[in-house]
Design goal:
heterotetramer, A: about 375 residues, alpha+beta, five-stranded antiparallel sheet, four-stranded mixed sheet, 12 helices, 12 strands, B: Alpha-Beta Plaits, Alpha-Beta Plaits, binds siroheme, binds iron/sulfur cluster
């Protein structure tokens, strides 16, 4: 398909509701031929796998890390490489990695060599750390309590060996969300990070009138902490009921909650989405607060390492982080990671009772 | 042409092995004033530990109610290049496949009209084009549409459906995830582009219970491929795994949640009637085991992020649905479900939240379904429940108490 | 201790707050001697076990079924037998059985013979059905939607072989509660029965004023279905929110809910209290309604037999009912018992979400 | 002297092998007018499928606020013998042990002052004496107290504590359940006899996690014996079990929730550091395995029947508490907990409900405890939570992030 950008754009030429282009336009011929007829795959190295069709045809995939935030220059460079080795075909993964799709075996190694030369980082296939599902952060969102891309960079720098070479007991899925709206997959990830506030929103009564709707604002509060303030035509917040979630700010700009001194990062762990072995799991809080310390977030990285290393040391083969914790028990999780158990770990919201230990089954930890 | 900023904090993030988003911004900044100011602003955020974006404003393309996230900067005077810095969501091709040609086209558009910065992809699945100004939006929309691309979803609308790579490059895909995604996207163009729901509605499709697109956690409607036939076993290949050092007992038998696999050191046996269709054995003995037809999908509803009632995972509505083009059954279900939701849902109430508020019965009756045990992990606990007129008519117990 | 009942009772002699007599007064000497020093026990037959102390001393226990509701004549008969064979020592179990405590081995068989002759029913020890924890029912309670003792009698008549001889995979704990106050252990029993209503309480507005407190009555409603009716100085019930639980009647006699035509029995299953193997579990509804059909409750008994027989046929050794169901899955439970799955099985209350199947893990049943 | 009724429906329940409560009522009815009318009334209930008792009235013994359940009949004219038919709760001896002598004494009292009908025992643990009239209550109280018995609890009060047979006749009891029960009952006589709590408060004590008194499900305070030492193994006896046909792998190893047992066909090994103290292996290999000291108890709080928030099981507050006479630690805890509850609890709000309403932190701080992971099955899920002034003071992460 020849793409055209006229010098002068006539906006009347715009069609609506045509939807995305058909995916077939972008599938390499070998995929079109063997679509739905794959037999198996082999992981040849952390950055290379081959899928073999029932017909005997093969397609090689070279996976490359991407920061997700890409400049057009980089995208063009990718396009060039793909043209050289892949007849122009490539894709991204659901976790923001880039995959070169090679139909001709003889081009696999040259591709890898060129990628190496150009400092692309290959890996992420198999039982290891892959790229991080994440969000906008300070790059683009008004709601961000922490940056996302920055934190991702620090994490992946730290765990890069587990992307490129080393194995983990099973895949380790990191995720980052810059606020509790959690546009990333934080609530069901092995180890995830979320920007949080720790102070009550400030009420700008004057702006409230113009910018916010009372019922929507009240309904946004998970704890019903918001009540009307009819005198001011604004609202009041019952401070003792506020969990600093920031959802009221999502619907009402007159309730800013961002706070450089008191915002921070929480680490949640043990979630997963796949149905293998154990059902999908929610992440649970491991560390309730760490300081928001750009550009390297050393506290967050250190704490993550404690969790990650304990998992790698303690988990059995195929155990995801949450499955490992489930087996050893949370009392052991806190013991082996050295993370203190605090008030914030104990639920006091909707399903609190379901999280209490209603059994005498306990492991003793020193 | 572009402004230069000292960015000592961000420079720090150009070090280290993982590809740097800072380097990306700098690349764009070198030739694009918007990108340059984005860099400067970001450095300031890093220094001050705070975001400088304003709460979104409403901007868009004519005829569309969404697809653009309006964004203005709090420090417009200091960083005029990002005074407006809207995001354009372009509906990705299903499966996230591209050609170099298509990618260059996208780059050309974005170099011309935007900051030169992108995300491949947003969490929902869209191509995210970061940073443009209101005046450019019509042109952007036009050029994309002239070339076969369209805007993605935003606001209280159907959101851009997405899927795993599925049959395009995975041996386990039991449904055509790309085709389903493409077809549903086309079917619901109006709902996607003209927000008319109480809140967002996301659809994610995956080819099997491995769920490589987090469908069960991040979609109001989760379509998860599954199978009804027995698992076919290639005993030789199983033995091969054992020979190569796999501990079949530990890694396969003991981890099977259905407790339905046995291994005598030579033969693997699966009691398929106890299989929970979890995919562990099939993926870990890749190539040796194979699910067999009938193929179809489990349809689940309701997952979302924490607000307001806490994060949810989707739950089963149809244990098994055939997924054959033109997918009338699922389309019909989506229509009925969203109609019911649009009628009863409050502003900013996701469909799952509405079901939790009104009860599964209201929902299931509205979409014409009966309850089945597959919908629940376990039946309810405390012994009080609603009865509707007629539930006990005709003494229903007589028929099964024979 | 010589007990005295003076012919003329001088109520001034009454002491208060003396508490119960000390338990030592009632312990056989062999128990006093070996208190806390037992080594092991052996189950010699379903109605007989022996406990052996570290000292080598032994005590034999003969367990006998009791209807719990006992006339003084029967209690005297028990006392006589205990005197004859047990030096007067006996006890009851936490499930209402009677236990004769024999210190002299030579008296065990004669005791058993006499009990047989007197038609006492021995059994209940080991992996089998034991007696039923239950409540007052029509014998004594204003709240009862069903009788308790009657239902217990029917159940135990049906399953008597499993008390006296036959084994089950593990203990099977029945419980009966005559209303949703659940004075029995219904919420955590293997198979339990609870009397339920299916119609909204009737409001006796005139009596409400005199007998009931508005806030208490409103607070009693689990679904907030009760709202004030200021005009009548009474209340209104939002019918569509009422689950017929009857708790409002518990605090307010002016809201009668009993209804001979529409009251019935629900069966809940799969609960347990012990910590062995799996943590304690709540019972879940198996049958949401069966008619209240005294004196033999044939529908309830038939339904119970379906559940019980499926458990005995399907469970592995040591699996309690709830553990068996957990292993086979609820979809199979409903399939193998033939019980239909209805609207009432699907939770719509506080923890509803926690009961929904948030996984694609499913077993196919025909 | 007593009235006779035709009782065709109840007669049906004299048939069948299980001892008949109808026969019991008839025995009493033969000589007691109250029992006779109870029989007649019950037959009518069976016929009409409805209870004929009125909502309780307040009756009692002087100086006591509870111990008697007032009960009046709706059909007093038709059945005058049960016009009043109050229940007297007598505090049972711990462990439910009796002597013939004591039992005859109870019978004598009840033949003289009551219907001759009893329950051994009520679900809470009391001796239940069914059916007497208001005029007799003072005498009943006096005679019992003269002979060392006292009333049990009712109303919004401490309820009669109860326990399993424990050290009296069980090899597994790790605490002195009878002594604890006796001691706490004595300690809290005032709270037991004079309702002054927001609602009832029940204490049940069991010697080990087998929980033969349903402590975890039916007591606001559940005291469950447990141990900290390793499990002692008598290998010969284990082999004996194997020889006699026990499948050690299936019945012991596979069922261990800590997955900490191994069996090589000859030796059983337990990794005690993973043991969950569930008691399965110990009870099923009875005599072969033995828990060892330190002994103590896990203290749990909050179980109750469904109203108003749904049935609860008790949850862990103290993972391990030593239980040595005079049990000051637990008494102190009960006092602090019930004081806090009395201060903040609403009318008819159980302590567990209050904790759920105000949050564990309020409760734990009130009783002077810190949170520990043993209190939860899992930490909380959604990432918003309360902070109190001072929680982040001194940068607590610095100390553990070394
Ligand atoms: C490319 C991608 C699909 C796509 O449409 O883009 C994909 C592709 C494959 N996945 Fe996946 N998965 C992809 C995201 C996921 C996700 C989604 C996510 O992470 O958000 C999951 C669910 C994670 C979870 O449960 O939280 C996922 C869980 C798996 C698993 C299950 C792991 C486990 O829990 O045991 C397998 C099976 C395995 O590894 O044995 C699997 C296996 C595979 C296979 C082997 C399937 C096949 O035969 O082709 C593919 C390559 C393996 C690999 O990457 O190690 N894939 N995979 C995604 C690559 C993401 C990336 O860049 O790393
Ligand atoms: C761009 C993206 C994050 C990213 O970097 O990838 C994103 C960005 C925003 N999300 Fe999101 N969400 C994005 C995927 C998600 C996801 C993940 C998903 O779709 O798989 C979630 C969690 C799943 C879910 O839908 O619940 C998510 C849950 C939210 C929520 C919470 C919704 C809720 O029901 O609780 C909000 C708040 C709202 O709607 O007001 C939200 C709101 C927003 C807004 C529009 C901020 C706002 O309140 O107005 C963000 C705009 C940021 C910006 O300035 O660009 N975003 N958002 C993702 C969309 C890209 C795309 O179209 O592909
Ligand atoms: C006498 C009594 C205690 C008392 O203070 O009265 C008692 C006594 C014993 N129990 Fe129990 N249990 C007694 C109520 C309970 C209860 C409570 C209840 O049913 O409300 C339970 C918890 C049931 C539950 O989990 O829902 C109970 C669960 C057990 C178990 C665990 C069964 C299992 O789930 O594996 C054992 C261990 C075993 O049987 O292997 C046990 C074992 C025992 C032993 C062997 C303990 C011993 O060494 O002496 C005693 C005799 C065994 C028997 O009856 O089979 N006892 N036992 C109670 C007799 C009730 C009856 O008349 O049948
Ligand atoms: C006699 C007994 C049933 C039996 O036949 O064994 C009983 C009988 C009554 N219970 Fe109960 N409860 C009895 C043990 C229980 C238990 C079990 C236990 O204690 O182990 C429970 C469940 C556990 C719990 O405490 O939650 C129980 C939960 C209730 C409730 C619900 C309490 C709640 O918080 O939801 C009520 C309602 C109330 O308090 O108004 C209640 C109320 C009643 C009343 C007083 C009826 C009322 O609303 O006024 C019943 C008097 C019946 C009568 O006329 O004799 N009874 N009640 C038990 C007491 C005997 C004893 O002292 O030994
Ligand atoms: S997680 Fe929050 S801050 Fe981050 S992109 Fe989403 S809405 Fe914005
Ligand atoms: S921050 Fe959250 S909890 Fe606090 S008032 Fe706003 S919405 Fe409510
Ligand atoms: S979800 Fe299943 S079909 Fe889709 S890519 Fe993953 S393994 Fe393949
Ligand atoms: S798919 Fe899962 S449940 Fe089925 S046999 Fe394999 S491991 Fe077991
Ligand atoms: S369960 Fe209900 S009806 Fe039965 S004794 Fe308890 S309160 Fe009365
Ligand atoms: S019966 Fe129950 S649900 Fe209905 S009004 Fe009364 S308390 Fe509320
Ligand atoms: S709870 Fe434990 S100590 Fe008490 S009787 Fe049961 S097994 Fe013995
Ligand atoms: S007590 Fe339970 S957890 Fe501990 S070793 Fe025995 S079976 Fe395992």
């Amino acid at each position: 398909m020849p793409y055209v950008i006229p010098d002068v754009v006539d906006v009347k030429q715009r069609k609506t509701d045509i939807g995305p282009p058909h995916y077939k336009n972008f599938l390499p011929p070998v995929i079109q031929k063997n679509y739905g007829n794959w037999k198996e795959h082999q992981i040849l190295s952390p950055g290379l796998m081959v899928h073999i069709a029932n017909s005997g045809d093969k397609i090689w995939t070279v996976r490359v890390a991407s920061p997700r935030l890409l400049a057009t220059d980089t995208l063009r460079e990718i396009a060039d490489i793909a043209e050289k080795y892949c007849d122009g075909y490539f894709r991204f993964t659901t976790r923001n990695n880039l995959e070169f799709l090679v139909s001709d075996e003889s081009k696999v190694n040259p591709l890898i060599e060129e990628l190496k030369a150009k400092k692309f980082v290959m890996g992420g296939i198999g039982s290891r750390v892959s790229n991080v599902v994440h969000t906008q952060g300070w790059i683009h969102c008004h709601s961000a309590a922490v940056d996302a891309s920055g934190l991702v960079k620090c994490l992946m720098d730290e765990f890069i060996d587990y992307f490129t070479t080393k194995e983990t007991p099973n895949k380790v899925r990191f995720a980052v969300a810059c606020c509790t709206n959690m546009c990333g997959a934080v609530h069901c990830s092995d180890i995830a990070f979320v920007g949080i506030h720790t102070k009550v929103p400030r009420i700008e009564h004057e702006r409230f009138k113009d910018l916010c709707e009372l019922p929507t604002t009240m309904a946004a509060c998970p704890t019903a902490a918001i009540i009307p303030d009819p005198a001011k035509k604004s609202i009041k917040i019952k401070e003792e009921k506020c969990m600093y979630c920031g959802n009221c700010y999502s619907v009402c700009p007159a309730l800013p909650i961002k706070d450089p001194q008191n915002d921070g990062v929480a680490i949640v762990v043990g979630g997963k989405v796949g149905n293998l072995r154990t059902p999908p799991k929610f992440s649970k809080v491991a560390v309730a607060f760490l300081p928001n310390n750009p550009p390297r977030w050393p506290e967050v990285i250190k704490a993550t390492k404690k969790i990650f290393d304990a998992y790698v040391a303690g988990a059995k083969k195929h155990e995801r982080v949450g499955e490992w914790i489930q087996r050893i028990g949370w009392e052991k999780f806190f013991a082996v990671t050295g993370i203190p158990f605090t008030w914030q770990h104990v639920d006091d919201w909707t399903y609190a009772f379901e999280t209490f230990r209603t059994t005498a089954q306990i492991k003793w930890v020193k | 042409m572009t402004k230069k900023y000292d960015t000592p904090l961000l420079d720090e993030l150009e070090k280290g092995p993982f590809p740097s988003f800072v380097t990306e911004i700098k690349k764009a900044a070198a030739k694009n004033a918007m990108a340059a100011d984005e860099l400067g602003l970001l450095e300031k955020s890093f220094r001050d530990k705070v975001t400088y974006w304003k709460h979104g404003g409403i901007v868009g393309v004519r005829g569309y109610g969404g697809g653009v996230i309006g964004r203005y900067c709090e420090l417009a005077e200091q960083f005029p290049g990002v005074a407006h810095f809207h995001t354009v969501r372009i509906n990705q091709p299903a499966g996230l496949f591209y050609t170099s040609e298509a990618m260059r086209f996208i780059c050309d558009v974005w170099d011309r009209y935007g900051s030169g910065l992108t995300n491949f992809h947003g969490s929902t699945g869209d191509i995210i084009l970061l940073g443009t100004v209101t005046e450019n939006l019509e042109a952007i929309g036009t050029v994309f549409s002239m070339n076969g691309f369209d805007l993605g979803g935003s606001g209280s609308a159907m959101r851009t459906p997405s899927c795993c790579v599925g049959p395009a490059r995975c041996e386990w895909s039991m449904i055509d995830t790309l085709d389903i995604t493409y077809d549903l996207t086309q079917e619901f163009q109006d709902e996607l582009h003209r927000p008319s729901f109480p809140y967002k509605f996301k659809i994610k499709t995956v080819g099997c219970p491995v769920d490589c697109n987090a469908a069960i956690a991040r979609a109001d409607l989760s379509i998860i491929g599954t199978w009804k036939g027995p698992i076919e076993i290639d005993q030789d290949r199983v033995r091969d795994y054992a020979k190569k050092g796999m501990n079949i007992q530990e890694e396969i038998v003991n981890l099977c949640p259905g407790k339905c696999i046995t291994w005598d050191g030579n033969n693997l046996a699966i009691n398929n009637s106890d299989c929970l269709h979890c995919m562990n054995c099939i993926t870990k003995l890749s190539g040796a085991l194979k699910p067999t037809p009938p193929f179809g999908a489990t349809i689940l509803i309701g997952s979302k992020a924490p607000f307001v009632i806490g994060a949810t995972l989707s739950w089963v509505i149809f244990p098994f649905m055939e997924m054959k083009s033109p997918y009338e059954e699922i389309k019909d279900f989506i229509r009925k479900a969203t109609e019911w939701w649009s009628e009863y849902g409050k502003n900013r109430e996701r469909i799952g939240e509405l079901i939790l508020r009104l009860g599964m019965r209201e929902f299931l009756e509205a979409v014409g379904l009966q309850p089945t045990p597959e919908m629940v992990k376990e039946p309810r606990r405390d012994p009080f429940w609603f009865w509707k007129e007629g539930d006990l008519e005709g003494k229903p117990w007589e028929s099964w108490l024979k």
